[in-house]
């Protein structure tokens, strides 16, 4: 089984509808060229955009143009409906023709106090809802400096998957390793650091869920730029990227898509 390479743009709290439309249009215009690869054996690459909720509708027409571009939300509630002020759940996302959601981003963990139990509930709800789920994990600088980066990420994984059975582990599940110290700092993990952690995540997923777990695409996120994308993928374990700051500029984002497309693992 070959793993899909993903390049996902997380726009965070940027791009109100008018700006989102301009950004999505520029990405849609350039994506076919960026994905074109003269090597017919090159692996599949999928591109995604995660705008703020209120800009989903503005972006939707541009993601519908081509099956290779998917529309994602940046979060998703653990329930479909009810008395939960401010929440948007899987059924609402499906109605809005959103294909997936990012869950457990470190900014949600840090600023909105999302804990393992909440992330576990959201992960299960998104997968049960039939959406693509991009589960984010990653250690803070203190954990890295203390040599506790692997145990931190494993603990995040076991928390997130505490309530997920093997029947929900399929191609709709994508994992993103995003070391907190690399997000928005301009300091990316080295290809070796990323490859090592991705191998650890893959081993854990394999032990927990067998080959369905081990075969999941694992993305890297944290200061990904056109200049470091190829080296990160070339290290071997990185199946694409979750891109924050650089995804706000369509030229940079498309350059990262191009780098991923030219280094995507050949189809098995
Ligand atoms: P960054 O953000 O690319 O701006 O570091 C990545 C992310 O938070 O997903």
Topology:
Layout: E1 5-10, H1 17-35, E2 45-50, H2 56-63, E3 69-73, H3 90-95, E4 100-103, H4 106-111, H5 116-128, E5 132-137, H6 141-145, H7 149-160, E6 173-177, H8 191-209, H9 211-214, E7 218-221, H10 226-234, E8 240-243, H11 250-263
Parallel strand pairs: 1-2, 1-8, 2-3, 3-4, 4-5, 5-6, 6-7, 7-8
Brief descriptors of the model:
single chain, 268 residues, alpha/beta, globular, binds 2-phosphoglycolic acid
Question: If you had to describe this structure to a student in words, what would you say it looks like?
Answer:
The protein is an alpha/beta fold. The chain has 11 helices and 8 strands. An 8-stranded parallel beta barrel has the order 1-2-3-4-5-6-7-8, surrounded by 7 helices. Helix 1 links the parallel strand 1 (5-10) and strand 2. 2-phosphoglycolic acid (PGA) binds at residues 10, 178, 183-184, 221-224, 242-246. 2-phosphoglycolic acid is lined by residues 10, 178, 183-184, 221-224, 242-246.
Task: Please give a quick description of this structure.
With 268 residues, the protein is of the alpha/beta class. The protein is built from eleven helices and eight strands. Helices cover 43% and strands 15% of the residues.
